[in-house]
Amino acid sequence: MSAPTELPADPESMKKLEKEFSMESKSEEKKLQSAFKDMHKQEKSEAKASKSVEKAEKAVKKLEKLELETVNSLHAITHKHDVAVADLHNAQADLHTQQTQLEKLKQDLSTARKHVDQVTRDKKDHDRERHNRISQLHSSPPTQIGGPSAGTSGASTGASQERTLL
Description:
Layout lengths: L10 H62 L5 H62 L8 H18 L1
């Protein structure tokens, strides 16, 4: 946000500056909503991956049990044992892949949360700056030529606009 060195003297410039502040605020609000939406997507992905890992762990345990039973009857069913071992290796590889994906999603979620925190802090800081600038605009005496009535009408219009912005 750029800060002009002088406060505008005429009501049109004040209105334009207030409108610019309002547009900046709306833009930052959209960024914040987008960051929350991205974080929500990351949370959903992480939850889905976590469920998938649990399912894969159950599959591994089931296949390990099957392997043990197959080893006990190895003499009669050697071929079935080989198939179970192969399934176990595939399930373990799948588990490893899914665990890796889960860790990456957790890192991405952490990054998204940090981003949301930063955007929230930035928005609060900018909102505070805008509010202070608007207060300065309304508290400084107008420098218009035309007597006391010219400054009064601009100040009352600005006060109603300030309520609209806040």
